[in-house]
# Entry
Amino acid sequence: MRAARVRPAEEVHRYDVPLRPAAVAMAWLGVGLPHEALAVPGVALAPHDVLVAVEMSTICGSDIHTVLGRRHSPTPLVLGHESVGRIIAIGDDGTHGVDGAELHIGDRVIWSVTVSCGHCDRCVAGLTQKCRRLAKYGHARIEPRWELTGGFAGHVHLRAGTAIVRVPEALPAAALAPVPCATATAWAGVARGAALRGRRLPDPSPSAGEDAQVLAGERVLVLGAGLVGLTAAVLAAEFGAQVQLVDPNPVRRAFAERFGLAALAPEDVAEEGYDLVFEASGHAVRAALDAVDVGGAVVLLGSVFPADPVPMDAERIVRGLVTVAGVHNYTGPELHAAAAFMAGRGRAYPFADAVGAMHPLAAVDAALVQAAAPGAPLRVGLTPR
Ligand SMILES: [Zn+2]
Ligand SMILES: [Zn+2]
# Structure
């Protein structure tokens, strides 16, 4: 008996998709350098790969961290991992959304920031965002046969192993583009916090009709009113919690009040007594640890850039029966739930207004300067068309 031969990657049949005119991706070359337009005249889709035409991408805080050199990134790369687009080509053997339904050319979709193998120990354990063979849109160096790797482009080449979610035509692009980072991360964080308090978030699909008040009675503190913190606060309030959102920035507080949230300056917040604390800024970890009540949980979401270690009062954590959890990115089902929330209860909120400015793709450098400036809107958008 002969062992099955493992087929080298080069032998996989690829479906060539010529692009006329060529697809354009804005290549980031390094700190202080302007982006350069990269023309990609075609892609070779491996089985289950998908090519999408980008409708809109938004600039996330981590894109800004990269261009300012606050974290190391391999270059050249195409930034952008918050996008909505439309499928224009599909590799051999088709592809499916997170919900299991086959995807078709013309479908409007969002996709995960991560590409996961689905087979390694971490994927099998449900930690697909930490796959041993992980690739990430907006973070990976451009390579042969995978040039369209980020959302700051006219097209993105989605590889097999990407979680893809079909989204409704009726939702504004500005409400959808941030879902694959901010909204899905907020969902994953709130789901984790709820689980640590013995609760389970309901199915957010508009048709599910489950009782949504699973966080009733919970005193929730959210530190940081960027888009992740704002969304986490909205979710916690939707699920019945009593929520206080905190941010030193009065512009962000005023925006949060449009979502019906109580937004406070840090000095106006009670220092302790919260069942669930979400830290979404990366700058208030100490305050988060101090604010949690006996038996409570702290979910850290914002510490996604290098920072000094935070001293931890271990005795208080032990005697207080406190749980501290870290949440980074999300799984495919969490992306699906976040999109379902935006298509359902999320419609009641002005999420689309978080995108306070739009630029053409070619003006990506100006857009990044605006997004990094003090008083910037929560998101600046880019559109290739
Ligand atoms: Zn992001
Ligand atoms: Zn894996």
Summary: The chain has two domains: 9-177+350-383, 182-326. The first helix runs from residue 61 to 67.
